Amino acid sequence: MRGTLQRGWLVLGLTGICLSALGSQDLRIDDERLPGKSIGLLEQAMTQVKFNTDLRLLRTGLAENHLLAREVEDELNDKYRRDLDALVEREAANLIEQVYGKQFDHDVRPFLRQPQPLSAERLRQVLAPATQGVVLDSLQLSAKQQAEATQVQLISWQFPGQPEQRLNLLTLYQGDNVQGQVELQQGNLVYMAEQVRQQALRDYLWYQLGQKGFDAREQAGLRQLVRDKLIRHQYLHQIGLHNDFHHETDSLRQRARQVSDADAEVYYQRHLQQYLNVAQVQAAHIRLADQASADRVYAELQKGLSFDDAVRRYSLAKDKSRSPAGDLGLIRPQDAQLDFLHKTALLQKAGSISQPMLIDGAFEIVQVRQREDKQLPLSDPSVRYEVNQAVAKEQLAREFQARVDALLADAKVEGL
Fold it and tell me: What's 234's DSSP letter?
């Protein structure tokens, strides 16, 4: 996919050295500016993830993210937009923590003021979803609930030289993700207390970042970098490029339905090996009484003991005297009443020896002597479904990258 899923959040390995002049340079995109100092903090945070990433490639990725975010944020549906603000605050604070975590103080308690008592019953009462009429979104507060939640003051804090900050229930609720909002609606006071603490701690990290010389513009720049990255991530989810076969989006589903027979055939022919299914196997087994015995025999097999000799020497099964020793016969998927032992053999590759498995009270080691596979046709419904999904993803990835490339080509970008 030519970097479609990687270039959005590239990292720079600069551990132990000063950032280059380019690292402190602002990134100008049309009439907007992303502060170099904000980019530098991101670079430092990412050094723990990946080493020696090209700085210009990183900046290109950040420019792409910003251009794309401007273009597609309004296209995000509610599912992918709802948690965005909360995710930005959490991820930006995590970046600060990565860079300055060992230097910054984490005890916010001396600055907390006027914690207000709140019962679980009162919490549920204010945030409870409507019980009458049609409820399209049980997490959406009514105007009356919002006004009431605003009046529920939870706590305040004040850092040296800074104005007092007050946290009310509405701010806490709206800044949380979907799962957190459910916890608050259910009156979970333990969860609420932890979220209050986390909110105050994040604010304390931002305060200390300011003490490190990051002005308001540079702090906003860090949030913007994070927001751009998250919008890209959410958009890729929405169009189906970050989803597996079991969690397809409407966009991917619609595109998959439109895949032509010709395009499906081309993909299928390129990936024939992915669409093989077992036709039959010939297998043998060793049955052992306990884990210790099974581990010992398995170790001997790994050192070169032949499977036939191991069966004759150690197996407790009556079929140890068969020829070949321990033979399970010819096994086919369509055979009636296959037990777990025989089903396990169908999953193994030819010539493979399984690790010991506990089956029906004994430990079994299975060897597949021969395996025959059959080619599943494109006409098989499950094959066509997977092929259509894969083709649709390839098409979406090409279109997405073309859109990003066009945005970058049409923009005036300085500082790459």
Answer: H
352 pLDDT more than 60: yes
Contact criterion met (CB below 8 Å) for 164 and 158: yes
Q: Which residues contact 77 (CB under 8 A, 6 or more apart)?
A: 238
pTM of the model: 0.73
Return d(Cα 269, Cα 271) in angstroms, integer.
5
Average pLDDT over residues 244-271: 87
Other Cβ atoms less than 10 A from the Cβ of 325: the count is 21
Tell me the two tokens of residue 89: 């605050």
**Pairing outcome for strands 357-359 and 362-375:** antiparallel
Q: DSSP of 339-359, one letter per residue? A: -HHHHHHHTSPTT-BPPPEEE
Read off the pLDDT of residues 285-342 as tens digits, 9 standing for 90 and up.
999 999 999 999 999 999 999 999 999 999 999 999 998 999 999 999 999 889 999 9
Please report which helix (H) or strand (E) contains residue 114, including its range.
none
* Count of C-beta atoms within a 10 Å radius of residue 274: 13
